[in-house]
Model the fold of this input.
Amino acid sequence: GDWDHFIDAANYGPPPWVRQALCDLAERGRVTIIEGERQIVPGLTALPAPGHTPGHTVFVVHDGRERAMLLGDAIYCPQQLTAVDWSAATDVDPVLARQTREWLWREIDSSGAAAVGPHFPGLQAGRVLGRRWQAVPHA
Done:
């Protein structure tokens, strides 16, 4: 979805030199487009999380029953997991982004997975407990 939206359709996205570099990599067979849920390697699964961008993806690292979710920009701050109506100005589709945040909240809460986003303060992972975010202590 992101390739179609930002590269092929040339919507607002990467600067021209980045777009060109990505196209060059694709021409050399160095880009793999993934869609839907997909196991990347054993223990790492990509899950679609559209809204922030059309093809936004979160990644789940798993080992047996232990799971950690890498949220990307689907969730900008831990508070968005429990206040799903908080949006980011950069969401391409704010309604879909909210639905994705609601799904992520339910998924993290029900699975007990730890989760972290690249904009979380101190890159602190945490868990959702009901309607509350609780940081996971550093080991």
